[in-house]
Amino acid sequence: MEGQQTPEILDYRNENGNGWSFYKNDGVLRRIGSTPEDDIEMIRKVQKLELRDDDVLIAAYPKCGTHWLWEIVTMLRAGNSEYQKEAKEVAMLGMPKYERADELPSPRVLNSHLHFRHLPEKLAEKNIKTIFIMRNPKDVSVSYYSHVNGMKASFRFDGTYSEYLELFLEGKVSSGDYVDYVKDWLQVKQDNPDLPMLTLFYENLKMDPVKNIKTVADFIGVSVSDELCEQIAEACSFKKLRAADTEVKQHTSNPSDIWKEGHQGMYRKGEVGDWKNWITVAENEIFDSLIERRFEGTGIVFTYE
After folding, report:
1. Active site residue 113
2. Which one of the listed residues 113, 115, 118, 147 is annotated catalytic?
3. Which of 130, 156, 178, 154 is nearest to 28 (CA)?
4. Do the beta carbons of residue 236 and residue 71 sit within 8 Å?
5. Residue 173 near residue 156 (C-beta atoms within 8 A)
6. Angstrom distance (rounded) from CA 163 to CA 130
7. CB distance 94 to 46 below 8 Å
8. Average model confidence (pLDDT) for the chain?
9. Which residues contact residue 39 at a Cβ distance below 8 angstroms, ignoring those fewer than 6 apart?
């Protein structure tokens, strides 16, 4: 870090003190955990991470189905519908344990919420198979609020959903602006036409899991039977994933150290259209206007119910 200028700290907490402080790294708003310097160093190390030819990377904004899809791809590669107990967070580039990804046996299924420019530099050069999954931003905002409101320490947000939504629509949340993130990955595909990249929608995977699991299998070059796809779809239903996740956490950590009492942890509802239970008519009009304006010309059509 010697000789590097200390980044400007941007305090985006609201008048009630809810929110976070950020700094900018190559145009991306990054929430400050320990220090900006530590975060900059972490990203630098991720960028230098050695990739293997048979790696698969899942890229997604938080709460867009990252863990769900990770389980599916891992099961497809293993040829069974058994849950993996250790590797998920280790395989997440940008998380504290990511350096242990080197210890994972091939073929690895890596995953990340980072922007493309913060991921390993050889991603495009080595033509690493990349799966990008999107979700309608209204459900993303609700699920993300529940996540940050439910955590006791790292993401802690004690405000209301309406307070969070205001920050979300302005891009002043952890992982930055959702629209910018999606547009960034669309640009990645344009700029790197040889990069093998599959784009999925969370809602499609939810509505027809077997068909979409087959699509993923074809993309990663795995031959699968209809029966295995159905088994994986069943094992990766949200009810079963939540139960499996709870069981793993009971053996590896104390959930009460991480989550507030009554919070369901990583897997909440997984429903399409739950935003209707949270967003007011006035907020929805603002949301619609922003989505129409900022996604204009992208060709993206989200499913909201």
Report:
1. yes
2. 113
3. 178
4. yes
5. no
6. 34
7. yes
8. 89
9. 23, 25, 30, 32, 33
What's the pTM? 0.90
Task: Tell me if 81 sits within 8 A of 135, measured CB to CB.
Answer: no
% of the chain exceeding 90 in pLDDT: 74
Written as six digits, the tokens of 213 are: 């699991």
Give the pLDDT score at 242.
77
Q: Give CB contacts under 8 A, 24+ apart, made by 120-127.
A: 120/46, 120/47, 120/48, 120/49, 120/50, 120/51, 120/93, 121/47, 121/48, 122/50, 122/51, 123/51, 123/57, 123/195, 124/188, 124/192, 124/194, 124/195, 126/51, 126/53, 127/194, 127/195, 127/196
> 166 vs 60, 172, 207, CA distance in Å?
22, 9, 30
Q: What is the CATH architecture assignment of 48-294?
A: 3-Layer(aba) Sandwich (3.40)
Cα 245–chain centre separation: 17
Instruction: Select from 134, 133, 144, 132 the least CA-distant residue to 275.
Output: 144
Cα distance between residue 146 and residue 161, in whole Å? 8
pLDDT single digits (tens) 159-178: 999 999 999 999 999 889 99
Q: Which of 164, 184, 199, 204 is nearest to 287 (CA)?
A: 164
pLDDT in tens, 244-275: 765 555 444 544 454 445 545 554 567 899 99
β-pair type (92-93, 109-112): parallel
pLDDT attached to residue 188: 96
DSSP symbol at 209: H
Residue 57 makes CB contacts below 8 A (sequence gap 6+) with 110, 111, 112, 119, 123, 128, 129, 130, 131
> What φ, ψ does residue 260 adopt, rounded to 5°?
-65, 155
